[in-house]
Amino acid sequence: xxxxxxxxxxxxxxxxxxxxxxxxxxxxxxxxxxxxxxxxxxxxxxxxxxxxxxxxxxxxxxxxxxxxxxxxxxxxxxxxxxxxxxxxxxxxxxxxxxxxxxxxxxxxxxxxxxxxxxxxxxxxxxxxxxxxxxxxxxxxxxxxxxxxxxxxxxxxxxxxxxxxxxxxxxxxxxxxxxxxxxxxxxxxxxxxxxxx
Length: 196
Fold this sequence. Notes:
By secondary structure, the protein is α+β, with helices and mostly antiparallel strands. The protein has helices at about 10-25, 50-70, 110-125, 155-160, 160-175, and strands spanning about 1-5, 30-35, 40-50, 75, 85-90, 100-105, 130-140, 145-150, 180-195.
């Protein structure tokens, strides 16, 4: 979501209260996260579901309520769906931490190559980064798109890891035959997931 930076906290409060309540009462709910870029006026919200069916059911509810929850902040809203291909938790993320998000594109036929490269070549190197809280790879096999999220316990750890992340990213996408189409950084407002 993008909008007026001065109004972002209104949307954050709504998502962390009424929005979370709406999600938690739905079957199959596994957690959610809210991340902000206060300077640019960007809000990134995620929810985790145990199946495609429960995700779809939740989307029907949220579609009706999303506009009200995000007023008066959101000028644009985009909704995407991904499969969690890799989830690796080191420690619980906390409010005030940092999220580095990389958006990927690749040939849909190379999805397994992207996942394997991440598991074998990227993940072990991310584990060595000081302050790492959690990392995940999300894929959309039909469209050949992905997201790599790397959460840090604080913004200083995220800033200190930028050079190492750039090297890992460069080598990883070359092996996976993927292209990075966007890099974003957010402050962690809330991040909770129960992957099992």
